[in-house]
Amino acid sequence: MQPQRDDIVVLRRAPYRDADWIVTALARERGVISAIARGARRSRRRFQAGLGPFFVFSASLRRRPKGELWDLDSADVAQGFSSLAADVAATAHASYGTELVRELLPAERPEPEVFALLVELYDALATAGPSAPALRSFELRLLALVGLAPSLTRCTRCGRHLPIDEDGEVGFSPAQGGAVCAACEPAHAGMSLGAAARSLLIAAAELPIAEAAASLAPSDRGTSRAARDAMVRLVLHHVGKPLRSLEFIAKLRQGGAGGATKDREA
Amino acid sequence: MADPVAHLSRHLARLPGIGEKTATRLAFHLVTGPAAHARELAAALLEAVDATQLCSACMNLTDTDPCRLCADASRDPTTLCVVAQPSDVMAIDRAGQFRGRYHVLHGLLSPLDGVSPDDLRIAELVRRLEPAGEDGERAEVREVILATSAGVEGETTAMYLARLLKPLGVAVSRIASGIPVGGELEYSDQATIARALEGRSAL
Ligand SMILES: [Zn+2]
Ligand SMILES: [Zn+2]
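Structure tokens for the assembled complex are given below, as produced in the milestone run.
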């Protein structure tokens, strides 16, 4: 098999045999692939930066004759976001984005826009530090790219337009995929979403991640939390299982050390 | 268990670096070889597991508590070298440059893998740096050298620890980047490790 070149971001890395990694990666042109990197835990020449997360690697790949796996022959750093590591909360936020991509994308479906979005997230977090609005922008744009965008301005059941100023709260149902009007769901059986949190999400869905981080820093903590809770519940509904990075962020918030200040929350 | 050989090979396959095929080969090798060899292996395995514990001071694997490195009075108690794994202690000590004490974290922070601060031996490290006992006397440690690898997890862990430990009034330093980026310490040669310790910088 002829080697092929593609840019990859590592989504998961597990040790295999003595010196290999088994890698799940998002390749720009090929989507999510699984590959064996032989000798990668020893060779710094063929595999730069330890084949770690939060790098764009220029990779040489070969499809193995049988099965789903690729051979990853080499990986050179094309773009790095090393300043993420300076802040454990920024690393945690970048990990959340990485884990979401890993869980939401099927294998080997080309998703160049998701690739670009993930790199955009790393770049924004490396530049501006951990940021809740950055995560909201990322979540909403990722869900839109994979066809799971929540409805925020119309009732998901009857399609009625839900203006922002109308009596403050609307219902929000992860299972039904977004906002629901009072007529369709009088008791707000899922959860409710206030006007400020809903406008934050509507704005975040349209903005580049860096701009969301800079301009949507919430004036009050309640709004930030409400927006987060709605999105996290929606995301967990789609993923269908707990996310390790979210549990990490929750523990960091409880533990306090090095973490618990404003905006370090997800 | 219907098939004891299959049962054995399933257990072997859980070992790092052992695939299903190798596990099956090893299982057949063990059951078709001399029974005495298998019994000796089983006894050695149990003995090693029963005799090995974590040193109550440095958290390294040991058969005595405190471990030999912590009990060695000729080693400098004012300098602590923090590493991810017991194998890193061996690698650094072999290089011969470092004559202080160690602390083993048993892993690195990794939000992607769900490894958070309370999964590591960080509380035990902090305890070693806090004033000793009720008389309020300070612990003897003056410098902590963070010798985690240069990959994302190693860097994140080092930066997290620096932020946590500096308020405790100890000097915190990081080994020079001579340790390969993301490379594992155990694969580094002795000269590289010695140079990385020599060239450490304050955080
Ligand atoms: Zn409705
Ligand atoms: Zn010890």
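Strands of chain B lie at 53-54, 61-62, 76-83, 100-104, 143-146, 171-174, 201-202. The pocket of zinc ion (ligand 1) is lined by residues A 155, 157-158, 160, 180-181, 183-184 (CB under 6 Å). Further analysis is deferred to the final report.
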